[in-house]
Amino acid sequence: MTYDTEEHIPQQTRLTATGPIECDVSGFNLLNSSLFNKGSAFTLEERAAFDLTGLLPPVVNTLKEQAERAYKQLHFFKTGLAKSDFCTSMRVQNKVLYYKLVRDHIKELLPIVYTPTEGDAIIAYSSRFRKPEGCFLDINDPDGIQDRLHPFGKDKDIDYIVISDSEGILGIGDQGVGGVRICVAKASLMTLCGGLHPGRVLSAVLDVGTNNKKLLEDELYMGNRFPRVRGEAYDAFVEKVMTTLHNMYPHAVIHFEDFGVTTARPVLERYKKRYACFNDDIQGTGAVAMASMTAALQVTNRKLADVQVVIFGAGSAGLGIADQIVNHMVSHGADRDEARTHIHCVDRHGLILDDMGPVSSDAQMLYADRAADWHGVDATNLVEIVAKIHPTVLIGCSTQAGAFTENVIKTMYKYNRRPIIFPLSNPTRLCEVHPKDALEWTDYNALIATGSPFPPVNGHVISENNNCVAFPGIGLGAVLARVKSISDKMISAAVDELAALSPAVRDHRGGLLPDLETIDETSARIATAVIIQALKEGLVTVEKEDSPSGGKVRVPRDFNKCLAWVKSQMWRPQYRPLVKVEHVNAIHTHQY
């Protein structure tokens, strides 16, 4: 982690959520440290101790008062992008206040600090550049990776790393170096929703060039101006990045974000057994969709073993959902090959059939239907596909707005009186069907979850299949347990716990996923489920570490006791007393 003016790096072996904080910066340097700064909330004693008395107005505010002032200031801005800029500015000035503001208004502000507004900010990254956040890893400097990471801390300073090669950003494609912002946004969600300390997460972009012609022709573009590097050179660079990250931060969980269609899956497969790593677009998206589907099946008293699923859009997200459905079925006793026969994937060539090898990837071909079964049926027509398969679940990951037409939905409804429909493409303008239309076309019998936020429809809550209800809990559990790797069964445990929290199970008009207002509890429970499963698989290493009170760390095996342990270590946006210490050298041990 970095401070804005210094290289003073807090080091700790475990998350700490309470107690005083040792600090050796003062005056302007303290006000310029986003992690230590309290602004007008510094107490009179702290102002005297840290040479702040003449730098602040005399009134001492509470964090609540500061957040209320910031919320009023936020509404001076009329566009989402302007509000995003305000929030970004606050994040680089005072992280506690930033997370307090967003947490207090999470439903309103999540679309501002994440999708869809973040997509617009990423597109305009170079032209609107102000202050850098994150780490920039350049393929032209493979031998300088360690030097580039050095300012962010030593081996025990980082718990979680979000990296992207920026090729598949938020449905808007290749954004080159601007993809650093999606890494910063996802790292922020690990704090906001998962309780990781904001100074112990690292965001890194892999600048391997870009195929975005508009960026290459933009004189203000700040990244490498050459076509995206592929093949052996790309693989060698990623290998060097991964080995360096692991060597420097051996306990950190690595989160892959928005890699391209051709790189996301191979990168995950290459490293998921070597390191504790996770691809949010594949596994996170799959986990949330699987949890929504599990809840919907529970509401309608149907069995997972009986489902037929059509996935419209067979890229990283669509195949990630397919994989998670299969993994979940296998975790619950199914044969893997048999489980795959329940999944039917559609891409730009139509339904993937077993004679389409030349135009389909190996990952897609795992879900290929038998071409012999489709003679006389137009397998490029979604209505005919639905009419033949009679799907229980229809999932959209295509970014084709309106692809789920009235004819498609009514055909599904003809064979399935409680259809499960997930138009997951985002931003909002790209969703496959509007929830209001899908409900009306099914006489309000459909169970719906979307990829972007939508208001309730006639009392029916529309859950947003936002990955932030899943990946922060998975990441938190992996961090606290210091897992060797993140297994399929750990993801499956997260799915079951998330589904168990569904309001729809108690009221069919409720959302399929828990409300964002309860995200702290949701993430803590998911983390607990992940840890307990990791214990069963022998993947936990934290018990080899010394506890702060002496002896070795012991992770509770009982769910409720483990849940209490998890909650005790979650960071929350609150000011803690600062204790003045003398600066000795550039690297310090601060319990923050």
Automatic annotation (TrEMBL):
(S)-malate binds at N426, N466. GO terms for cellular component: cytosol; mitochondrion. Divalent metal cations. Prefers magnesium or manganese. Keywords: Metal-binding, NAD. Pfam families: malic, Malic_M. Transmembrane segments: none annotated. The active site is at Y114, K186. Residues 91-272 form the Malic enzyme N-terminal domain. It comes from the Eukaryota. A divalent metal cation binds at E257, D258, D281. InterPro entries: Aminoacid_DH-like_N_sf, Malic_N_dom, Malic_N_dom_sf, Malic_NAD-bd, Malic_OxRdtase, NAD(P)-bd_dom_sf. The keyword Lipid metabolism does not apply. GO terms for molecular function: malate dehydrogenase (decarboxylating) (NAD+) activity; metal ion binding; NAD binding. Residues 282-535 form the Malic enzyme NAD-binding domain. GO terms for biological process: malate metabolic process. Its cofactor is Mg(2+); Mn(2+). Belongs to the malic enzymes family. This is DEBR0S3_07250g1_1. It comes from Dekkera bruxellensis (Brettanomyces custersii).
